[in-house]
Design a protein that fits this description.
single chain; alpha+beta; two-stranded antiparallel sheet; globular
């Protein structure tokens, strides 16, 4: 089950933890390969913009349709940071 970013810690089962770990690793490797994410002013040591922002599916897209299901993307705050998610694809964890 895909849970919202504010889901309770410890609510993932073993398979979900394995999938999450693989997804985090893949995202980090992709970010490194694309030299980071330039949202405002990030530049690498040579002054070039990163290219990872071209891979972002929901970041900064509140109100726009989810690329997977078409539901409007929502924004919330988690630990004081803006977080975007799809309320249709990322259901609340009933636990």
């Amino acid at each position: 089950m895909r849970t919202r970013p504010s889901g309770a810690r410890g609510s993932l089962d073993g398979d979900e933890i394995v999938r999450l770990r693989k997804a985090i690793r893949a995202a980090l490797e992709m970010g490194i390969a694309r030299q980071g994410t330039t949202l405002r002013d990030y530049r690498d040591p040579e002054g070039r913009r990163g290219r990872m922002q071209d891979e972002l599916k929901v970041y900064g897209r509140a109100g726009e349709p989810c690329p997977r299901c078409g539901a409007p993307i929502e924004k919330t705050r988690v630990a004081g940071r803006g977080t975007w998610y799809c309320p249709q694809c990322q259901e609340l964890d009933p636990g």
